[in-house]
Every structure is written in C-alpha cells, then in structure tokens.
Amino acid sequence: MSYRYLASAPYPTDRTHAENLLHIRRDLRTPADAMLTAPLAIAMLDAAGVNVDPVNILALTQVNITVIDHGRGVDDVLVAGRVATEARSQIFTEASFFDAADPAKLVGLGSANWSVICPTPDGFAYPKPGDGVDESSDIPPLWQAYSGNRRADGLLEISGLKPEIGADRLHHGPMLVVTEAAALEAGAEALGTDALCVDQIATTIMAPGRVGPFVAVPVSVGVSGDAAGCRVELRDHGRDDRTVAATTLRISRVN
C-alpha cells in the first residue's frame, strides 16, 4: 500500500540506477502548498527497491531528505536514484529530486541506509505499481490514508498491523508518514501557524514494529525565529513502548 497509494512506478535504468516519477497531489502538501517529505522518501525507497530487492532481503535503518525547493510550483518530481555502495552487511542508496517539468532544477536530495538480512530467493518479482487515488474526489489527510488515527489525548497512532501496512512488521511507509504528520503538528503549535514548509527529515528505524498500537510521541520541540525542529518517536505500545523509529523534522514558517 505504501507505494501503490502514491502511484509510485519506478523503473531501473541499469543495475545500480533507477528513476521514479511522483505526482505531488494536494494531499502530499502542507497547508502552505509545500511538499511533504515522507512521500519523497517513499518514492526514493521504491526506486532503490527495484535495484536492490532482487539481490538481497534488506531492513531499512536510516532515511534522510533535504529539500532545496519546497515545490510550491512543482506538479511532478523526477526521482533519480542510485546504489552508492554495496557492502557485505550494508547497502547505501541515494537520490536526487528534480522538477519533472524542468529536469535541470534540483529540488531535493536524499539517502537511505539498509542492513542486509540474506540473499533474495529465486523467483522474486517486484510488486506491480498502483494507480494512486482520484485527485478530483475527496482525499483524506495522508496520515489517515496510511492507517493513522487520532487518540483521545490528541496523539497520532497506527492501531496495529494489517496486510496493507505490514502483516508481520510495520512497513516504513506508514512510519514516515505518521511521524512527519505528528512533527508538523508539534511544530505548528510551537510556531503558531500551520503555514509551514519542511526543510529536512531524518528517520532512524531502530526496531521492527511487531504488535501495536504504534504511538507517535513528540519528545522535543525547539524554535529559532521562523524555524522549528521537532523529534517524534514512534513507540510500540504492545511491546512495552519500545521505540520503533525516531523522526527529526526541520520546518520553517512560510511568510
């Protein structure tokens, strides 16, 4: 579901390079029309997957996205991904993001780190891309589409595992989407406005999400002028609140 909901359709250009195209729908933007970074990360990871998944079964450990242009006039983003290094126990991938209407215009940079679990069994087939959603219809907030719920105390959570987001362990897509949403809410409260753009996201995946509910808890928020930094931990309440992932977001007020 993580990739299909975004209509992500990556294709390899050779053994270590791949491209993807992400349409920046209105639900992939902040109230200030700036691009969210979780969808960029998901599109980057999908592009990496067509290169690395046929070779090894991997566990994602780190994701970083830096935004150069917040995409308020960008309709589609071209993702140019590559495998930077393949080692025995780790793989490092990266991507550059461009305005698809102006491929010389760089709008962001990203990277991801993966741990190698074992070789991929014979017969592996990469999942087919999905159609996304009809943008002309009512579209829920992205965190709701990725199985997020609002708790009575105001925090966001993913209630538990299901096939769409992971039958055995929580997929990284919902982790990225829900923690970014929680960080944006905390930043909006600190800055006094939801007219925000995301400058950078860094997510570390520390443990598999096995049980749930998975609760997104803002643990640190700091403000300097028009910018804020927010750290959100995604905790597996069914496993003694073990931290599954931690996301740090740097956001700025749009004037």
TrEMBL record:
<protein>
    <submittedName>
        <fullName>Uncharacterized protein</fullName>
    </submittedName>
</protein>
